[in-house]
Amino acid sequence: MTETHDSPPETPCLPGGLIPMDEWEFPELSVRRSVKDAVRHIAVQLRGGVSRKEQPFQSLDDLPELSASQRQRIAPDPDFSALAAAISEALRERREEVPNPRDVAFLVAPPFSGMREALVRWSWSTIGQGQGDGSEWVIAPPKSLLMSESEAVQWWDEQDLSRPWVIPELADFWLRHMGGLALVQELLRRVSAGTAGRGVVGCSSWCWQFWASYVPDIPAAPCTPAPLNSEYLGQWLTYLAGDDESDPVVARMAHDGLYVLPARGKLDGKKIRHSGFLSDLAAASRGNHGVALALWRSALRAAPEEGAGDSGDSEPSRSRSCWVVPLDKLSLPAMPPSKDRAIGFVLHALLLHDGLDEQSLRLVAGISRQDTTNALVLLKRADIIHYRDAGNRWHVTDLAYPNTRRHLQSWGFPVDRF
Question: What is the C-alpha separation between 253 and 255, in angstroms, rounded?
């Protein structure tokens, strides 16, 4: 089971390391406990670990959200350069362990896993392939992805594949259109023929799902980050906050007072009782790093006296203590109640390509300008998607991703395995 993985202590930014994609397993569901079991669990924990002076809040409405400065201390963005180094080291170890390793490594991960952000910071120097920040080895896609087979061959001929290279996201190199497949087809042909040189390809799980179906015999044995189970989540969230034993982040459930962090199990020498929140978070996020972090941030609350008057313009509170709202009390993005199938086409296209501009979206989804605009407006209003000026692209939001995946699956769209 996933819960039994041992997390390598040397890679706190990547608990569990990289695993073969076919070994990925869904994290255990603590929320599968019956209501009766859940009540008994809470009662036992309360008797063992929460004193009268540590009583939780009667009303969750009394708890303000964390300020930007508090959130940065407790739940900051990951260090993607450190993640890139951890991935590079994991690949180096795999190359030493696997007989006849492939020249091109494929890294497949669900959206929001941080793979793209890490690979744009890639450096081959960590595995003995040169020096520098790695930017000179990043292969960027052409402006137009609509190419004939001969044009795709010419484009790849112009790329210097004689030195180690990296593609941060394969989804940037194709469009689901008859004229938009040639670049990836040609790359896969060269990988199969052994003429692509030494490289690393990052690929979103939705993009991989399409190409694994379109080209069943892709010459690759992709790896993926191990899913975050409750143990890994505790380690990772503690690592993000800065694992300081003298000043640990203390997070407790707002409704029953049980501890979520610190993960060590002790605070000032006193043994503490933990909530099942991290197991619930692992299940709700499907073990996805970015989704788990987004849900974690949404669940964090400050004590009323800590939140009062604490804005980004004032002197921030230095507290590293916070309260955590149960996941079922969060107001998360809900799918618009619409029967318009254009919504499904738009969402599926955005996930296939890790975001699209409106023109490419119409091409891929195969719907009219008016239907595309209507769907985008509806989904944006519901906080299911957002627009990024960088790249001029629409993307599914991290908080809406689990619900979006469930809806696409129920609507009969092919989904990724994560």
Answer: 6
**What is the DSSP secondary-structure string of 44-72?**
HHHHHH--GGG---S-GGGPPBPPHHHHH
pLDDT digits (tens, 9 = 90+) for 334-388: 999 887 889 999 999 999 999 999 999 999 999 999 999 999 999 999 999 999 9
| Tally of CB atoms within 10 A around 49 | 17
Whole-angstrom Cα distance, residue 248 to residue 157?
A: 53
250-253 vs 259-261, strand pairing mode = antiparallel
Alpha-carbon distance of 177 to 175, in angstroms, equals 5
* 27: DSSP letter: P
130/294 Cα distance (integer angstroms): 36
The fold of 103-220 is Rossmann fold (3.40.50)
Listed residue (266, 272, 299, 328) closest to 54, CA to CA: 272
Cross-strand pairs, 388: 393
Query: Of 322, 413, 316, whose CA–CA distance to 365 is shortest?
Result: 413
Under DSSP, is residue 395 helix (H, G, I), strand (E, B) or coil? strand
Kindly list the domain boundaries of the chain, sorted by start residue: 49-75+228-329, 103-220, 342-410
Question: How many other CB atoms are found less than 10 A from the CB of residue 411?
Answer: 14
Q: Which fold, 342-410?
A: Arc Repressor Mutant, subunit A (1.10.10)
Question: CA 281 to CA 304: how far, in whole Å?
Answer: 25
Judge whether 168 and 200 are in contact, CB under 8 Å. Answer: no
Q: What is the pLDDT of residues 237-265, one digit of tens each?
A: 999 998 666 678 889 998 888 999 876 66
Adjacent-strand bridge partners of 165: 199
Count CB-CB contacts under 10 A for residue 403. Answer: 16
* 155 to 150, 273, 340, 368: CA distances (angstroms): 9, 59, 39, 31
291 within 8 A of 281, measured Cβ to Cβ = no
Same fold, 103-220 and 342-410: no
pTM: 0.86
State the alpha helices, DSSP H only, in 135-245. Answer: 149-157, 182-193, 205-214, 230-241
> What DSSP character marks residue 274?
B
Cβ atoms 214, 221 nearer than 8 A: no
Q: Quote the CA–CA distance of 31 and 326 in Å, as a whole number.
A: 11
